[in-house]
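> example.struct
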């Protein structure tokens, strides 16, 4: 268990690092904002006692000169703070890019920033990151995956202007690499890439969106397909939920198709819950999980890990709906009625006690103040 300090803690990669920290039970990281970086003494104070600094802050968009100057400036500011520390951290992990040193202003600046950090004399892990994708990425900024998912969630169609091969890594894998943690059930610091063409990616996500629009689960046959599906779902939550389910009735009774899966593994189970009892109070990093109340009434509550807003869905067996739990959101279910609640649950994978991908986290909790997105 390491104590970390992070620059760029409020960004896409920074949030995923903080989620993985929460899952592992590591201490809350010290967040070093861009304002903090302008004061070496303040940086030194922030990193006091930490084992590793993760330098995630960078400038990815803008005028070429601004991009180049911004990346080298941030590295120089951090280096000044590291030198000012009475007891510097044992190591620094730098979120570099596979474009480093490619002759562009961005690539050359990222390479220069690595040199600046290496000159501190501290152990530097220079991690060359390819295209990252994952839940809650910023569309038209972080990656083509985020852009395609946002367009599709708004019932649009992705536009592909130039086809080329992408090397995609899920952001949790990158977080694990930077943190220096060994492989787990939901992450792999070796960062196994998905190599896929832009057009093939757009077509696959388009098919996923069409299937899921009816509440059906698309074929998910490998870890990247599961994570791409979770990324797509993150762009439709909470606006597209609950998902209505068709109910058929005749003289014998009623029938609801709760889960229709087009391929891949899965597990279905039912539970009864007494009045006032709460189930859940956890989150998942990769697992897809569906709740369908069959009898009784319940409230499903969710909170994004690290956030403080709680979303609530009131559901009952009188109206057939499904609520799929978004990854990296703490969730629970409470029986709000006077009688026993019957709920069907489905997950996309068989339960493995050694790798359950179930991380304790109360929905209603004392939440640390969220890190500013501008950090």
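> example.seq
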């Amino acid at each position: 268990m390491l104590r970390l300090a992070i620059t760029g803690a409020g960004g896409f990669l920074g949030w995923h690092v903080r989620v993985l920290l929460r899952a592992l039970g590591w201490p809350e990281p010290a967040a070093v904002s861009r304002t903090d970086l302008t004061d070496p003494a303040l940086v030194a104070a922030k990193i006091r006692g930490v084992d590793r600094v993760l330098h995630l802050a960078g400038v990815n968009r803008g005028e070429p000169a601004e991009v180049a100057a911004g990346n080298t400036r941030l590295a120089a500011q951090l280096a000044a703070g590291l030198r000012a520390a009475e007891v510097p951290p044992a190591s620094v992990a730098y979120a570099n890019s596979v474009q480093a040193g490619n002759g562009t202003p961005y690539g050359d600046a990222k390479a220069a920033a690595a040199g600046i950090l290496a000159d501190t004399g501290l152990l530097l892990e220079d991690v060359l990151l390819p295209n990252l994708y994952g839940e809650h990425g910023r569309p038209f900024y972080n990656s083509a995956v985020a852009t395609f998912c946002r367009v599709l969630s708004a019932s649009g169609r992705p536009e592909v202007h130039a086809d080329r091969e992408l090397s995609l890594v899920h952001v949790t894998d990158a977080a694990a690499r930077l943190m220096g943690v060994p492989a787990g059930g939901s992450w792999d610091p070796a960062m196994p890439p998905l190599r896929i063409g832009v057009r093939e990616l757009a077509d696959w996500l388009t098919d996923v969106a069409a299937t899921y629009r009816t509440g059906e689960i698309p074929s998910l046959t490998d870890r990247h397909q599961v994570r791409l599906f979770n990324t797509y779902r993150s762009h439709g939550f909470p606006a597209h939920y609950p998902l209505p389910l068709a109910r058929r009735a005749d003289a014998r009774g009623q029938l609801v198709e709760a889960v229709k899966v087009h391929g891949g593994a899965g597990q279905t189970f039912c539970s009864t819950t007494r009045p006032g009892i709460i189930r859940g109070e956890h989150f998942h990093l990769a697992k897809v999980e569906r709740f369908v109340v069959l009898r009784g009434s319940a409230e499903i509550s969710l909170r994004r890990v690290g956030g403080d807003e709680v979303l609530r869905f009131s559901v009952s067996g009188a109206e057939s709906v499904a609520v799929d739990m978004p990854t990296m959101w703490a969730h629970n279910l409470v029986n709000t009625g006077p009688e026993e609640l019957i709920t069907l649950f489905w997950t996309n994978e068989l339960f493995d006690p050694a790798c359950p991908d179930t991380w304790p986290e109360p929905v209603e909790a004392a939440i640390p103040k969220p890190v500013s997105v501008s950090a």
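> remarks
The mean pLDDT is 95.
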